[in-house]
Amino acid sequence: xxxxxxxxxxxxxxxxEKAEPLPELPRLAKTxxxxxxxxxxxxxxxxxxxTLPALPxxxxxxxxxxxxxxxxxxxxxxxxxxTIEEAAPDSMLAFSIVGHIFVSRGADRSYVCTLGTExxxxxxxxDTMPPALCHEVSGLAAKxxxxxxxxxWSPWPGIEVTTEVIxxxxxxxxxxxxxxxxxxxxxxxxxxxxxxxxTLTQKDIDSVCQVRPLACLGERLTIHAEANTNIxxxxxxxxxxxxxxxxxxxxxxxxxxxxxxxxVRA
Length: 266
Prior knowledge:
Elements: E1 28-31, E2 34-38, E3 44-48, H1 60-64, E4 68-70, H2 84-87, E5 93-97, E6 100-102, E7 109-114, H3 117-123, H4 131-142, E8 147-156, E9 159-168, E10 171-180, E11 184-189, E12 193-194, H5 202-206, E13 209-214, E14 219-224, E15 236-245, E16 248-258
Antiparallel strand pairs: 1-2, 2-3, 3-4, 5-6, 5-11, 7-8, 8-9, 9-10, 10-16, 11-15, 12-15, 13-16, 14-15
C-alpha cells in the first residue's frame, strides 16, 4: 500500500501538488509506548514503558524491555546468558546471579509522569550532579516539563526493581530502587557504541556515550560485546557501571550522556 500512489496516471492532479513542510515536532512527547524524544540532529529515542507482547516473540526482552531505544545506536540482542559479553545488555540493568546474567523480562507495571520541583529536591542530587545538569533538571521541573518513565520489574525471584528514567537534552538519568533478598552484582549499561576495543580508546567511547554513577559507589567499565549482537553494527562496546547489590534496600543513580556519533573512529 505504501507505493499505491505510483499507480496514478501521470496526468493525475496529485502530481501537481506542492510538498508542504513537515509540522514542527516537540523535543519530547508522550506516546502510547512511552516518551519519544528528538535531538538537534533529528535522531529519535524512545523511553519505553509497558509490558511485553502477549505473544512470545523471539528475543522479546531485547526488542521491548530495554529502558531506551535509539535510531542513532540501534540495539543489541543477547547471544546467551553465560557472560556479560554474550548477554550484550545495552540500555538495561543486568544482574549477575549464580554465574549467569539476568535482565528484565518486561515490566510488571509502568507509568509516565512529570516531576515537580519538590519531587526533584527529594531526590537529593544537587550535590552530585554537574552544575549545568542541575540547572537543566531544576529548570524543566519548574516549568512542569520534566518527564519520567517509571517501571517495576524483577530479574530474579526475590529481587524487585523500580526504575525511573528522566530524559535530558543530551542523555538521561536513571534511578534504580533495588529490593533484594541476596547479594549480587548489577551492570547499568548505556548504548552500544560501534567499534571494537582494539581501535577505540576510553576517550573515544566517552565522547559518544558516557555512563557514570551519581550519589553512589560504582565502577565504570566497558563491555566488549560479542560480535554481531547489535542490529546496526557488527562490532560494539557497551559502556556501563557495575554496582554491588547488598541484601536489603539499594538505591543507584546513573547518568547516561550521549554526544555525536561521528566522533567515533571505525
